[in-house]
Specification:
55% of the residues lie in helices and 8% in strands. The chain contains 10 helices and 3 strands, in the order E-H-H-H-H-H-H-H-E-E-H-H-H.
Length: 260
Amino acid sequence: MFPLRDHNPSGRTPYVVYLLMAVNIAVFLYAVTTYTSPRLMAGFYYTYGIVPAELSYGRHLSSLFTSMFLHAGFMHLAGNMLFLWIFGDNLEDEMGHLPFLGFYLLAGLGAGLIHVMAGPLSNVPTVGASGAIAGVMGGYLLMFPKARVDILLVLIIYFRVFSIPAFIMLGVWLALQFIGGLGADPNTGGVAYWAHTGGFVVGMALCLPLWMKRGGPVFWNRTHGRPDHPDTHYTYSPSRIPRLPRKSRHPHSRPGPWGK
C-alpha cells in the first residue's frame, strides 16, 4: 500500500515544502558526488547522522539536526520526498510558512531523541527526513482525518489505485511502524521504526494547540475533516489482473496432460 497523491489542493504555494525538498535533494547529490567510496560515505554518515551512543554521552548533538537532511540512497530520498509532497502542503497552508518550518524541525528533533532513547548505546548511524515527515503525517491526521488519499495497492501481479480516507492509510502506517519497532534491534540497523512512531506522536502533540484553536471537534464538523478547499477529482482507468488469451482448439482434439 503506497500513497500516490491526495485530493486536497493547497490554498497557497507551499514554499517551505519546496524548500525542504530542494535542500534534501541538494544534500543527497552533494554526498553521492563527494563521498564516492563506501568508506568515505560511512564516515560521512557517522559524522552527521545520529549515533545514539555518541548522543548519550553528550557528543555530536548537532546530528539531531543534520541527520534530517541525509539519506541512505535514491529510493530512501524519493520515498520521503513523496510523503512530504503529499502531506506537507495542506499543513503548511493551515499553519503558515514559518510556523510550519518550526513544526517540521521540532518534529524531526523529537523523532531523533525518541530513536536515541530506544537504543541509547547503539553505534549504528541513523539518517533521513522520515522522523520529521512522520511528524507531518501525525499533524495531517489530526487536522484532516477524512481527506482523500490515493494509494497504490500491489499484490504480486495485481495493481490497483484506491481512494481512501487519510485516517485509514495513516493509521495502518503508524500501526506497522509500532509493530516493526517491537521486533527491531537498534544495534543492527535497518528501519528506524521508533523514530517514525515517535515523530508521528510528536507531530500530533505539536499540532494539538492549533487544532484546539480552530475549535477541535467543531473544526472537524465545519470542514468535514478535510482541508477547507474543494477536492480535486481524478479519473481512474480500471486496473485488472493481466489475462492470457486462450488458444482456440479443434472441438475433437484431446487436451494434453496439463489441459482443461
